[in-house]
Amino acid sequence: MAFPKNFLWGGAVAANQLEGAYLEDGKTLSVPDMLLGGDVNTPRTFLPVTDPNAFYPSHEAIDFYHHYAEDIALFAEMGFKCFRLSINWSRIFPDDSGKANEAGLAFYDKVFDECKKHGIEPLVTLCHYEIPWWIVTKHHGFLDRATIDLFLQYAETVFTRYKDKVKYWLTFNEINICCMGEGGIGNLYGLGLMEDEDINATEPIKLSDLKSDPQKTFTALHHEFIASALTVKKGHEINPDFMIGNMIAHVTLYPLTPNPVDILATAQQDDFLNNFCGDVQVRGAYPTFIMKYFADHKIDTSFIKDGDEKILKEGTVDMYTFSYYQSNCVTMDEDAEKTGGNMTTGAKNPYLKASDWGWQIDPVGLRYTLTKLHDRYPETPLMVVENGFGAFDKVEEDGSVHDDYRIAYFREHIKCMGEAVEDGIPLIGYTTWGPIDLVSAGTGQYAKRYGFIYVDRHDDGTGDFSRSKKDSFAWYKKCIASDGTDLD
Ligand code: BGP
After folding, report:
1. Where do the DSSP E strands lie in 221-361?
2. What is the predicted pLDDT for the residue at 226?
3. Which residue, judged by its Cα, is nearest atom 2 of ligand 1?
4. Catalytic residue selected from 19, 60, 121, 386
5. What is the pLDDT of residues 406-452, one digit of tens each?
6. Strand partners, 247
7. Mean pLDDT of all residues belonging to the chain
């Protein structure tokens, strides 16, 4: 297997799922700070006014804010070359004064310095669902075109501050999330888009019950595309060496049967869910199929203003990055058995097993996806920036965690990824999701664990935040040390 020597092996996290310290050093609320904890069977709920008696997992998360040095040292021990993290926007711009918060900026200086000390390259997501709450209430997130300027001001501030510490950047995490999921879940996470009625709710609301209006969704998404493109352009002015990518939640789709109607439905869903946003950000223009979709669904495209086409063309990304957890099947047969997944559901594939959350495990699908993406964007380097296995872990009496199921998941995915590299696909890196246990985005659970590192923190709010190594820790270390050749 031929992973190059400079391959970016590492792990990925998001500020809201690990930092905690949700109001410390001047930070104000952001969208995830309004989300309550859930469990495997209960959809996440949202309660806009933080209730002192309710449990909001992001408020303390795993307290990376105070453990960052210890955590980065553990990543270094595993041999990480890269650490993907996000900046929490509301630490930097906590209000609408237009003044950056020095204490927030100083925190990330310390984090990046710590990475540098260990020879770890940071990969920074500018917005991983962390839209400041004041932008939600004042501007309905990205629905208001004015939010483009707020994002640019934020991006320019951090680009300038960290231009010699960070080379790799991503604009919006899973920008296509608003094209999937039920109700307003994708809108809230991705676009900070909510109706006043929901913003002012006094009782918890299921995320799937949040109101959603396609006209508003596509308007806000367009504003994100423009913000992303302008950010790429600005970044290159600040440091021409920056590599700035997009980030797509790639849900790989197969037809459930060879029935041509299933084949066609699969291609159409694939275009809408997976290809639409990537095409805008890599090719710099709206694809024909989505303009047809807009016409068919009576979406008024007057949100595309004069000059926007040029902005999109001039702000194409330097690399295409994506999350890959699973695949789903598509069928026109409404009686086909369904299964869960990352913000979306699909038909059950009889050839695949699934996690306890119903996410179908499909390592071969990763090779297939890399091949497909390279065919679509032949000039663009690719990076897998999330892949991992959420599981209930059992801590033995001596404190060890024998997570052979997680090792098996990674072994097979890395093997298939290596085959894609041998095929000649320009894959530059791989960051596993949640190298350290953190809060689940989909359910708000701590019990859905992804880490090589166990964190003593639980869904009832107990635990002392101490860290310990699972069996997978030594395994991933060996994998990286051997450039992905020793997977036993
Ligand atoms: C992706 C998100 C991550 C992460 C991951 C796992 O969609 O970018 O933030 O959480 O999914 O999902 P979950 O936490 O729901 O298991």
Report:
1. 243-249, 252-255, 319-323, 327-330, 338-339, 346-347
2. 99
3. 441
4. 386
5. 999 999 999 999 999 999 999 999 999 999 999 999 999 999 999 99
6. 321
7. 96
Question: Would you say the pTM of this structure is higher than 0.85?
Answer: yes
**Do strands 467-469 and 453-455 pair parallel, antiparallel, or not at all (unpaired)?**
antiparallel
Tokens describing residue 436: 């350290």
Taking the chain (488 residues) in runs of 10, the rounded mean pLDDT of each run is 89 98 97 88 78 90 98 98 98 98 98 98 98 97 98 98 98 95 84 93 88 96 98 98 98 97 98 97 98 97 98 98 97 91 85 94 98 98 98 97 98 98 97 98 95 97 97 98 96
Rounded to whole angstroms, how far apart are CA atoms 312 and 169? Answer: 18
Tokens 């890399």 belong to 370
| Residue 121: active-site member | no
Backbone angles phi, psi at 10, to 5 degrees: 175, -150
Q: Within a 10 A sphere around the Cβ of 292, how many other Cβ atoms?
A: 10
Number of neighbouring beta carbons within 10 Å of residue 299: 17
Ligand 1 mean position, distance from CA 295 (Å): 32
Angle between helix axes 102-117 and 64-77 (nearest 10 degrees) is: 20
- What residues are in contact with ligand 1 under a 6 Å CB criterion? 14, 17, 173-174, 249, 323, 342, 386, 390, 433, 440-443, 448
Of these residues, 174, 203, 309, 396, which one is catalytic?
174
- Residue 70 designated active-site: no
Helix, strand, or coil here: 103?
helix
Give the torsion through C-alpha atoms of 11, 243, 271, 376, to 10 deg: -110
Alpha carbon of 179 to ligand 1 centroid (Å): 16
State the Cα–Cα distance between residues 290 and 78, nearest whole angstrom.
43
Q: Closest Cα partner for 320 from 390, 268, 372?
A: 372
Per-residue pLDDT tens for 473-487? Answer: 999 999 999 999 999
Hey, what amino acid is at 303? F
Which tokens go with 208?
A: 């799937």
- Tell me how far apart the alpha carbons of residues 357 and 355 are, in angstroms, rounded to a whole number: 5
Give the model confidence (pLDDT) of 170-196 as tens digits: 999 999 999 987 778 889 999 999 999
Calpha distance 451→391 (Å, rounded): 9
